[in-house]
Amino acid sequence: MTATAGTFRASQWTTTRPREAIMGEHGPYETAFLTGGAVRVAQTALVALHEGGGVRVSRGTHRVQAVNRDADDPVQAALLARVPDTGILLGPLLEATAASDEVRAIADALKEAGLVRAGLRGVLRPTRAGRAARHRAVEDVPADAPDRCAALGPDGLEDAKLREILLTKDPRPLKLDQGRRHGHQNLESSNLSDTQYGP
Question: Spans of biased composition, class Basic and acidic residues (predicted)?
Fold first, then answer.
């Protein structure tokens, strides 16, 4: 975890979710990996942070901003570490978090437990035991939003706004026409500096 990730309450993680309990009962991140892979793990962390008021996600722009940088676990800390003060687009944030060491550690633990194995091109896939664990997780889904996201994906979320955000692609960035086709003067040929935007 980097210093920019904020406060990570390690004591809370180890006392409320000891590693043995996580691997024995399959916590939300293990369930998320088994049902949807690394990106689902990142989505689950985002949902938990959103529920706890740690992040805000814009419906229109899909921009994620950190409101509180306290993390309840290493995956949340990894996600928050990737959110600059100016915010970040949702898609790249989820992809970067999914590729983090913290999410890789979950995959490694599942591999060690015999619940996933490398398939074609090294992609991790659930084993027979992993598929059985995944089936149990999907059958018995708690009402808690992060657990629902872990087991069912964004489709399972009751928060309609967050569900819509997670199920739609990031909006395309606007391309500003700097040519003269619409009567706008090119900045390079004007007397305005790069920092001047008004008359």
Answer: 169-180
